[in-house]
């Protein structure tokens, strides 16, 4: 009976795009040297997975204000993740081309998070 039910966040395009981003980040950080997979690599993985986690957690909240709060945290995690990839590039672990390949996905997630936030802002002002 319950196995066919999905959580509301699973239907969100931003959640699906963020999941794709997490997968791509995990694959990319495999290029890191072994000693960095548990330092900078771990930080990148945690910030990337925080995006999907906060989208999901926010969707389970009742108040619009709380939903917005978790969207803001997801956005911060997304920018942190991108920043950490740039640090990895600066350290020579990945190339600029590697980042450029992911940039459109980061931009898409950013735009979708912003649009979701705006839709909640509109609902609050109605």
Q: Please give the count of helices.
A: 4
Which architecture per CATH? Up-down Bundle
Biggest beta-sheet profile: none
**Can you tell me the number of structural domains?**
1
Q: Strand fraction band?
A: under 5%
What's the overall geometry? elongated
Low-pLDDT stretches: none
The helix/strand order is HHHH
Name of the top-level CATH class: Mainly Alpha
Can you tell me about this structure?
- It is a single chain.
- The chain has 126 residues and is an all-alpha fold.
- It has a single domain (19-125), classed as de novo design (two linked rop proteins), CATH 1.20.1440.60.
- It has four helices and no strands.
- It has helices at residues 13-29, 40-59, 64-90, 96-125.
- The longest helix is centred in the last third of the chain and has 30 residues, at 96-125.
- The model has no long low-confidence stretch (mean pLDDT 94).
């Amino acid at each position: 009976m319950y196995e066919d039910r999905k959580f509301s966040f699973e239907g969100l395009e931003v959640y699906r795009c963020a999941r794709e981003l997490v997968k791509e980040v995990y694959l990319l950080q495999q290029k890191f040297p072994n000693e960095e997979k548990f330092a900078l690599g771990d930080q990148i993985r945690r910030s990337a997975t925080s995006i999907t986690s906060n989208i999901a957690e926010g969707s389970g909240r009742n108040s619009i204000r709380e939903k917005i709060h978790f969207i803001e945290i997801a956005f911060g995690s997304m920018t942190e993740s991108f920043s950490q990839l740039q640090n990895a590039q600066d350290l020579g672990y990945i190339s600029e081309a590697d980042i450029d390949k992911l940039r459109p996905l980061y931009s898409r997630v950013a735009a979708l998070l912003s649009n979701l936030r705006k839709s909640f802002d509109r609902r609050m002002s109605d």
